[in-house]
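Sequence and fold
=================
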Amino acid sequence: MQENDISYLIRKAAFEVHTELGPGLLESVYETALQYELLQAGLLVKAQVSLPMVYKGVGMDVGFRMDLLVENRVVVEIKSIETILEVHHMQLLTYLKLSGHKLGLLINFNVPRLKEGIVRKVNGLDDSQRTSA
Protein backbone atom coordinates (compact mmCIF):
# COMPACT_ATOMS: atom_id res chain seq x y z
CA MET A 1 0.00 0.00 0.00
CA GLN A 2 1.34 3.43 -0.94
CA GLU A 3 1.48 6.45 1.38
CA ASN A 4 -1.38 8.19 -0.45
CA ASP A 5 -3.64 5.15 0.01
CA ILE A 6 -2.77 5.02 3.70
CA SER A 7 -3.35 8.76 4.03
CA TYR A 8 -6.81 8.40 2.50
CA LEU A 9 -7.74 5.68 5.01
CA ILE A 10 -6.38 7.75 7.91
CA ARG A 11 -8.43 10.79 6.86
CA LYS A 12 -11.53 8.62 6.42
CA ALA A 13 -11.07 7.22 9.94
CA ALA A 14 -10.42 10.70 11.35
CA PHE A 15 -13.69 11.96 9.84
CA GLU A 16 -15.50 9.01 11.47
CA VAL A 17 -13.96 9.86 14.86
CA HIS A 18 -14.78 13.56 14.52
CA THR A 19 -18.36 12.81 13.48
CA GLU A 20 -18.80 10.48 16.43
CA LEU A 21 -17.07 12.55 19.14
CA GLY A 22 -17.11 16.14 17.88
CA PRO A 23 -14.54 18.79 18.89
CA GLY A 24 -13.39 19.77 22.38
CA LEU A 25 -11.99 16.58 23.88
CA LEU A 26 -8.46 15.66 24.94
CA GLU A 27 -5.88 14.61 22.35
CA SER A 28 -5.55 11.22 24.05
CA VAL A 29 -9.25 10.52 23.44
CA TYR A 30 -8.91 11.23 19.71
CA GLU A 31 -5.68 9.23 19.50
CA THR A 32 -7.30 6.18 21.08
CA ALA A 33 -10.42 6.43 18.91
CA LEU A 34 -8.41 6.98 15.72
CA GLN A 35 -6.16 4.04 16.52
CA TYR A 36 -9.27 1.89 17.04
CA GLU A 37 -10.77 2.96 13.69
CA LEU A 38 -7.52 2.30 11.84
CA LEU A 39 -7.15 -1.14 13.42
CA GLN A 40 -10.76 -1.89 12.44
CA ALA A 41 -9.82 -0.95 8.86
CA GLY A 42 -7.11 -3.62 8.98
CA LEU A 43 -4.13 -1.28 9.20
CA LEU A 44 -1.00 -1.77 11.28
CA VAL A 45 -0.94 1.03 13.85
CA LYS A 46 1.62 1.84 16.51
CA ALA A 47 0.92 4.47 19.17
CA GLN A 48 3.36 6.70 21.03
CA VAL A 49 6.33 5.53 18.97
CA SER A 50 9.69 6.47 20.52
CA LEU A 51 11.93 8.53 18.30
CA PRO A 52 15.59 8.98 19.26
CA MET A 53 17.55 12.09 18.37
CA VAL A 54 21.12 12.12 17.08
CA TYR A 55 23.16 15.03 18.41
CA LYS A 56 26.76 15.40 17.25
CA GLY A 57 26.78 11.78 16.20
CA VAL A 58 25.45 10.47 19.50
CA GLY A 59 22.02 8.82 19.72
CA MET A 60 19.95 10.19 22.56
CA ASP A 61 16.58 9.06 23.78
CA VAL A 62 15.04 12.45 24.56
CA GLY A 63 11.42 11.40 24.70
CA PHE A 64 10.20 12.35 21.24
CA ARG A 65 7.04 10.35 20.61
CA MET A 66 5.07 10.17 17.41
CA ASP A 67 1.36 9.91 18.23
CA LEU A 68 0.65 7.27 15.59
CA LEU A 69 2.67 5.46 12.95
CA VAL A 70 0.45 3.76 10.38
CA GLU A 71 1.70 0.85 8.28
CA ASN A 72 5.25 1.88 9.25
CA ARG A 73 4.95 4.60 6.60
CA VAL A 74 2.75 7.52 7.66
CA VAL A 75 3.26 9.64 10.80
CA VAL A 76 0.12 11.08 12.41
CA GLU A 77 0.40 13.95 14.88
CA ILE A 78 -2.86 14.62 16.73
CA LYS A 79 -3.89 17.93 18.26
CA SER A 80 -6.99 19.24 19.99
CA ILE A 81 -6.24 22.94 20.19
CA GLU A 82 -7.80 26.24 19.19
CA THR A 83 -5.23 27.06 16.49
CA ILE A 84 -2.46 25.14 14.77
CA LEU A 85 0.74 27.14 15.11
CA GLU A 86 3.95 27.04 13.10
CA VAL A 87 5.63 25.11 15.93
CA HIS A 88 3.15 22.25 15.37
CA HIS A 89 4.10 22.11 11.69
CA MET A 90 7.76 22.08 12.69
CA GLN A 91 7.12 19.27 15.19
CA LEU A 92 5.72 17.03 12.44
CA LEU A 93 8.55 17.96 10.07
CA THR A 94 11.07 17.06 12.77
CA TYR A 95 9.40 13.69 13.27
CA LEU A 96 9.50 13.04 9.52
CA LYS A 97 13.16 14.00 9.34
CA LEU A 98 14.24 11.97 12.39
CA SER A 99 12.22 8.90 11.43
CA GLY A 100 13.03 8.99 7.72
CA HIS A 101 9.35 8.74 6.77
CA LYS A 102 8.01 10.52 3.71
CA LEU A 103 4.45 11.48 4.67
CA GLY A 104 2.84 12.94 7.77
CA LEU A 105 -0.59 14.20 8.75
CA LEU A 106 -1.21 16.88 11.36
CA ILE A 107 -4.81 16.49 12.52
CA ASN A 108 -6.48 19.04 14.79
CA PHE A 109 -9.78 17.62 16.05
CA ASN A 110 -10.81 20.85 17.82
CA VAL A 111 -12.46 22.39 14.75
CA PRO A 112 -16.11 22.57 13.61
CA ARG A 113 -15.28 20.90 10.24
CA LEU A 114 -12.41 18.41 10.31
CA LYS A 115 -11.41 19.17 6.71
CA GLU A 116 -10.06 22.48 8.04
CA GLY A 117 -8.04 20.66 10.72
CA ILE A 118 -5.97 18.33 8.51
CA VAL A 119 -2.56 19.33 7.17
CA ARG A 120 -0.50 16.99 5.02
CA LYS A 121 3.30 17.20 5.03
CA VAL A 122 5.37 15.52 2.33
CA ASN A 123 9.17 15.44 2.34
CA GLY A 124 9.30 18.59 4.43
CA LEU A 125 6.84 20.52 2.26
CA ASP A 126 3.13 20.93 2.77
CA ASP A 127 0.92 20.68 -0.33
CA SER A 128 0.66 24.48 -0.69
CA GLN A 129 4.47 24.73 -1.03
CA ARG A 130 4.79 22.04 -3.68
CA THR A 131 5.15 23.15 -7.24
CA SER A 132 3.56 21.30 -10.09
CA ALA A 133 5.76 20.16 -12.93
Observations:
- Residues 3-124 form a domain with the Trna Endonuclease; Chain: A, domain 1 fold (CATH 3.40.1350).
